[in-house]
Amino acid sequence: MYISSLVLHGFKSFGQRTSMTFGEGITGIVGPNGCGKTNIVDALRWVLGEQKQSILRSSRMDEVIFHGSRNRKPSSFSEVTLTIHNNRATLPLEYTDVEISRRFYRDGESEFLINRNPCRLKDIMDLFMDTGMGSDAYSVIELKMIEAILSDLEDDRRRMFEEAAGVNKYKKQRRSAQRKLEATRQDLERVSDIIVEVESQVRALRLQLKRFARHERITAALKNR
């Protein structure tokens, strides 16, 4: 599995549609300071579902949209499309090429697509979980991630190794099961409260029924006199 192409349109400094193709092996991107090299890394993380604005080096999400230049008007949306050659079937999809797209509009509306079919952000996150290519995975190595590996804090190192070992999927499934169990427990507590309330109402109705039956007997006896 490898990235075969990346298309940016209106993303940060890429005001016009820009397409890049990659092959297997190592690809180097070079250029002067300020030409947008880091924005390419941001685009990779963004299309894979990154939501943290600090990681995207933005204070607001709409800052990922091209804000215009002297010769070009601001863009009304930002779009990044990533194509992955799934030659080893690492992704659980029956496609040799998997296309992931993300759009963001100035009004705050977002769109996510897998092979041009609308999907949820969760679908993209689940698709890349434990593949090493998620938005928070080790496929993008930054200085702070190296510091985390060398850190004395066990939690920092553990998160990196768990991602590499592919256990995050099972931890997520466990958390989901725990949430369902907690929701079921709360439902059972509510059912118990309802049962207590209904039993109280049943006792009151039984008492009323006895009084009504007594009233009927007395009324019938008076009529027979």
UniProtKB/TrEMBL annotation:
InterPro entries: MukB/SMC, P-loop_NTPase, RecF/RecN/SMC_N. Gene3D superfamilies: P-loop containing nucleotide triphosphate hydrolases. GO terms for cellular component: cytoplasm. Residues 2-139 form the RecF/RecN/SMC N-terminal domain. This is RecF/RecN/SMC N-terminal domain-containing protein. Keywords: Coiled coil, Cytoplasm, DNA-binding. GO terms for molecular function: DNA binding. Signal peptide: none annotated. It holds the Pfam family SMC_N. It comes from marine sediment metagenome. Residues 143-208 form a coiled coil.
